[in-house]
Amino acid sequence: MICILGIETSCDETGIAIYDKKKGLLANKIHSQITLHQKYGGIVPELASRDHIRNVIPLITKALKKSHLKPKDIHAIAYTAGPGLVGALLVGATIGCTLSYAWNIPKIPINHMEAHLLAPMLEKNKPTFPFVALLISGGHTQLINVIKMGQYQLLGESVDDAIGEAYDKTAKLLGINYPGGACLEKIAKKGKKNRFIFPRPMIDRPGMYFSFSGLKTCAANIIFENNTDPQTCSDIARAFEDAVIDVLVIKCRRALKYTGYKNLVVSGGVSANKNIRRHLTQMVKKEYRGKTFYARTDFCTDNGAMIAYTGMVRFKQSLNQSMSIEVHPKWSLLELPKI
Ligand code: KG4
Ligand code: ZN
After folding, report:
1. I need a surface site. Which of 3, 114, 216, 321 has the fewest CB within 10 A?
2. Neighbours of 277 (CB within 10 A)
């Protein structure tokens, strides 16, 4: 039996989980900071760090209790070492490294984006290698050729804003509280198709790169020219989401064609969006007779389960009792060692 404790503190969620190699996920605890940051309209990094400090240890205690384990039953500690907010990362890394030293067990620094990519592996219906991964989160939009576990090739990424950032900025312009992605999806459902038309950036160029910064500018211009009654807000949200979906479908189609793969994995916070899921699943099934894999909704956004699972995958690369505590606010998953 190998049990890994996972610690996630890269942004605005404190996530703690315990993953057992044989039994799977034994505990998953989360504390969201959304209400803390909402009144500022976005994440305040210093408040995020302080809140992680308050919550990591109590959540570890709860996770151990839930799984009926004692510290002596844990074999390694996996913590998010990047990418993310430097102060927030340092909280999880410092607590993780300290516990690893105190409990005399190895520590495993985890890349947050690799953990998002692997989150669908926590489901019963797991993807098999190779596949194309679409990573869509608050900080990233990337298409990755996943040759096998730990072997990644970049196919394309956003040249400016990440898709989640575009969702949040457009939502803010529409008067929706931070983080607005999920709420924008909700109001878009009531929107009239084609009342407004947003551009589909970079679809006329070959390749798999994205650009999303123009969408919030388009939303700002439409809002400036129109009354923002609830129906108009819904129509704008619908137009925004229709444009985003068209772009994602076109770029994923290209990625599958380029790699010759049939399967697509979609992960990261934005993959919780049901409308995006529906369109991508349809395209993959109809055009490639392939399958699309997602994590359960709770595991699309940040969580400790994906960190503990990735810790299990990279267990052999764990570090023994070095005293250094390192974090990497910018850390591409392409720099990761092979497994
Ligand atoms: O993966 P995540 O929790 O954090 C990062 O690693 O960035 O992603 C957070 C992002 C936010 O931008 C949030 O608005 C977006 O995911 N998001 C959504 C939905 N749920 C969360 N965007 C669109 N539709 C949703 N249902
Ligand atoms: Zn994330």
Report:
1. 321
2. 16
Closest approach atom of ligand 1 to CA 185:
24
CA distances from 268 to 97, 136, 224, 272, 288 (A): 26, 5, 31, 8, 23
**What atom in ligand 1 is closest to the CA of residue 276?**
24
Two structure tokens written together for 190: 């009531």
pLDDT at 319: 79
Q: Give the confidence band of 320 by pLDDT, cuts at 50, 70, 90.
A: confident
pLDDT at residue number 318: 87
Find the 103 Cα to ligand 1 centroid distance in Å: 35
Cα gap 184→43, rounded to integer Å: 18
pLDDT band at 322 (very low <50, low <70, confident <90, very high): confident
Amino acid at the residue 208: M
C-alpha distances out from residue 134 to 22, 89, 253, 279, 280, Å: 28, 24, 11, 14, 10
Q: How many residues does the chain have?
A: 339
> What pLDDT was estimated at residue 118?
98
The 8-class DSSP code of residue 175 comes to T
Q: Which residues contact 177 (CB under 8 A, 6 or more apart)?
A: 38, 41, 183
What H or E segment, with its residue span, contains residue 27?
strand 24-32
Quote the DSSP letter at residue 192.
Answer: P
Written as six digits, the tokens of 7 are 């610690």
Measured CA to CA, the distance from residue 329 to residue 215 in angstroms comes to 26
Please calculate the CA angle 159-160-163 and round it to the nearest 5 degrees.
105
Q: Cα separation of 253 and 10, whole Å? A: 31
List all residues whose CB is within 6 A of at least one atom of ligand 1: 11, 137-139, 164, 167-168, 179-182, 185, 268-270, 272-273, 301-302
The Cα–Cα gap between 257 and 249 comes to 12
Q: Is the entire prediction scored with pTM above 0.85?
A: yes
What are the Cα distances from residue 120, in Å, to 6, 41, 66, 77, 268? Answer: 16, 30, 23, 21, 10
